[in-house]
Amino acid sequence: MSLSKRDSLGWYQRYLLGIKSHQDMKIIEIQKSEDILFTILDRVHQQDSRFQVDYSRELACFEHVLRTEFSELDMEVPLHFNDLSLRIEESCDTSNTVDGISDQTQPRKGFVYLAVSKASEGRWLESDLFHRLPKSSQCSGHIVPGRVINVLKELLKGAIVYCEQNFLLRPGDVNASLLNFDGPRITLVLRNLMKPLRVNIIPVLRRTNNFSEFVSEDEKIFPEPINQVALSNTDICNGTYHHWRFSFERPMKKLLEKADADGGHRLDSLCLLDRINSDHWLPEQNKRGLKFKHFKMVLLWAMKFFPSSEDWVDMESAVYRMSVVLLRCLVLRDLPNYFMPEINIFHEDFQPPFDFQAVYKKVEDFAGFPEKCLQIHLTHLLPAQHRHIDSYVKMLLQIQDTEGLYWNTAYFDVILNKFQVYHVQDVDRIGAMQLVWSKTTKLVTDEGCAS
After folding, report:
1. Between helices 249-256 and 266-276, what is the axis angle to 10°?
2. What pLDDT digit, counting tens, does each position of 1-42 carry?
3. Which of 105, 117, 118, 341 could form a disulfide with 336 if both were Cys (CB 3.0 to 4.6 A apart)?
4. Sequence-ordered strand ranges (E) for 79-196
5. Gap between the terminal Cα atoms of the chain
């Protein structure tokens, strides 16, 4: 005999309450680490006013409420360049070498140059961040993110020494050894109550209405709401030595912060899966697994595919809507950026390989027997029976899809129906789901699989 609906939902609610019970203490500890950073960055700003300090930390405050584990922390350092003529350019008409590093390839989608107009060349000629291009090029030169990183690293080293000598920091508050490594990442390790906290310091140039925008032809294919939000809120941060990259943190927050205005459980499901990932889905050492940013992107796609309030009315339904999208992305090894789908955020530079096979198996096991991951105490007895993932569901999840035919609501509705967490009465959606069901059932039959 299977569990009642009330018993099933009880596992999710109890697990979420267990997460939240320790949340306030963790936030306090993270804020102590942020105070250490603010002390250092304040000194950096005193030395070089181009590097600002964002004391509001609006993005971080939003995430603190949702995240349950903080193995690392991102700290954005806003850049202030007093030049409204700066432009974002997708490509450069002149190949060049900066500081011995050659720029021979065109940047990937989402990677851009920050160009200085020829009219503004005079104010940048003496800048340590500027690289001048030949007069034949379309612009005077570029603001080089690699140079921004190098300058900021040296400022951080000096600021840490100053703060320690003036007793603004305690011995052991900061481990700055990672600053000596080359590359586009600036990482400090801070003292924390639970375990040392890795902090990634990210220079970011905030987009304003006066900042010139590059709008590609591909953006015309985006749904209108995505296009409007992306263009008005997209910042740029360091990518490679030569290239900046788009940062979608602000538009992502804009879409998520009011996600549950209808009383749904979208953000609860995000919080729950983030913790399950920390407890059960971490990959082997030297392999890369899921991070909080991946779950945020999965939720945005799930909200697009499942727009009805009915889809998010209870915790189990909400969690499964995120889970089926995540499983599909792991199969295809592609998690498209919601704002620029050509960008696969599973593929990150300077990171170890993603352990797709191992992570997929763990997420699939969760979908088949969620209570095993939701058990927070031995007295919570696991059910004798659990949801079974049969060969039909496995086949559905494993379908290869070069044309995007199975990246839609109807396809995911079929999988949700097999998991018995559909519960939607929309006639049009049911009809679309039945069409996909007929097509995939025929595919199963043709391949000799049992449905």
Report:
1. 120
2. 344 444 555 888 888 888 888 777 788 888 888 999 999 999
3. 341
4. 87-89, 96-98, 101-103, 111-116, 130-132, 141-143, 174-175, 186-190
5. 22
